[in-house]
Amino acid sequence: MTENKLRVIITNKQKQVKIPTGMRLLIRRCCNAVLQSENFKGIAEISISLVDNEQIKELNKQYRDKDIETDVLSFPMGENGVYNIDHTTGAQILGDVVISMEKVVEQANRYGHSLQREVGYLTAHSVLHLLGYDHEEPWERVHMREKEEMIMDKLGLPASQSYILDNEK
Asked: Which pTM does this prediction carry?
């Protein structure tokens, strides 16, 4: 059996949140866990940028016409399992992920999660998007959430509570 290889390029483009030791390794582990759970074959490359709210708001406005900050954006480079190839490495370029570290802190506090849990969850969520998953329809949302939680459990980052806040019930 040949070993799958994954290149994860992580760039910190923000100064608002100090990136804890081990966060880059966690992001790589999350990417690997998603690809393993999806039986992805071959060499893959994913680019992840850690940004602030202002930067992600600009990207959200530019690419999605939504003038608001969000927690994460995914920019898939492939369609229907066909990806561009980096001819120097042979890697399939899955796409780009942009995570707002300010939103990570805010959401970790809101949901009672660690920063690691929140970054891990957003990374898994985004990589699933890069692989073609969506959550526009309710059944797609449930299916995607199940996959995300399975990956989080596998990495030892289970949810500490529901994503539904008491005042949202």
From this structure: 0.89
